[in-house]
Amino acid sequence: MPAIRLVDRGVIRVSGDDARDFLQNIVTNEMDEVTPGKAGYGALLTPQGKIIGDFLVVAVTEEDGGGFLLDCPLLQTADLMKRLKLYKLRAKVALDDLTESTAVIVAGDGGRLPEEAGLRYADPRLPELGDRAITDRDGVEEIAGGEMDDYHARRIALGIPDGGRDFAYGDTFPHEALLDQLGGVSFKKGCFIGQEVVSRMQHRGTARSRVVPVVFSEGLNPEDGVEASAGGKLLGRVGSCARGRGLALLRLDRVADALTAGHELDAGGLAFTLQKPAFIRFPFPGEPEFGAAA
């Protein structure tokens, strides 16, 4: 299967002598673990702990100029640049938006990309997502002829949320978007913006809403963004859908109550069930250990 260009992604370069320390002090992931050949996954939060933008962090070798590239959502690139400049202060850091000259591509089959694809890195969120690469915009069509819908269908089937589709930027906590399950938050590093709120949610187990994979009846899809309900009560909202599967941001305590009462879970007139992927470690409704920690 050919590689796929993700036209909904942008690229920001963070370079300079203080680049690593600068990011370490503000983003959610552990920057010491990001090295050439090993990407990281993290986010920049508001002081209240809500996600401004999540991104993959890729280290650039000194031979190629050093620093880091942020593989980020296209619609959040301008806001991320604005916030990064705000926090830069006197740090020896240069910030450049490379979106117009670069492209982000992924392996169409979730495997490896060829060396000539560009700056390659395995998606750090889940091995099954395969390789990604940041490459020059010129000539990208020659190496990336696949359909983006195929990538998103695979992402949905694996249970990986996508910002702007499955959760709203500026209104979602990292736990709700599964960053704690996908290696996107370090609970051992020093302070980062919004850390107090995120740490409190982690230790108190107060994340009642989560993005979870769902399977619809008859292999059909409701419209993206429809409400999910059961027994006349709102459970949350469905995000992206493909091929009879979807991701939905749901109040799991309400889902548990609905299942206990024998109510059918419904979205846009289609019944659905929750399907727990192997990477999720918190208990699902219906499991014996389900409780406040969900």
Can you tell me about this structure?
The chain is α+β, with helices and mostly antiparallel strands and 294 residues long. The chain has a domain of 155 residues: 2-Layer Sandwich (Alpha-Beta Plaits), CATH 3.30.70.1400. A hairpin with a 2-residue loop joins strand 11 and strand 12. The longest helix is centred in the first third of the chain and has 12 residues. The radius of gyration is 19 Å and the shape is globular. The mean pLDDT is 95.
The CATH topology assignment of the domain at 4-158 is Alpha-Beta Plaits
Query: Largest beta sheet, briefly?
Result: 6 strands, antiparallel, barrel
Low-confidence stretches: none
Q: What is the highest CATH level, the class of the domain at 4-158?
A: Alpha Beta
The number of helical runs is 5
Shape: globular
The tally of strands reads: 15
Q: Helices and strands: which structural class?
A: alpha+beta
The CATH homologous superfamily of the domain at 4-158 is termed Aminomethyltransferase beta-barrel domains
Q: Approximately what portion of the residues adopt beta-strand conformation?
A: 25-35%
First and last CA, distance:
38 Å
Q: Give, in spatial order, the strands making up the sheet with the most strands.
A: 10-13-12-11-14-15
Domain GCVT N-terminal: 11-105
Pfam family, one: Beta-barrel_CAF17_C
Keywords: Transit peptide
Protein name: Folate-binding protein
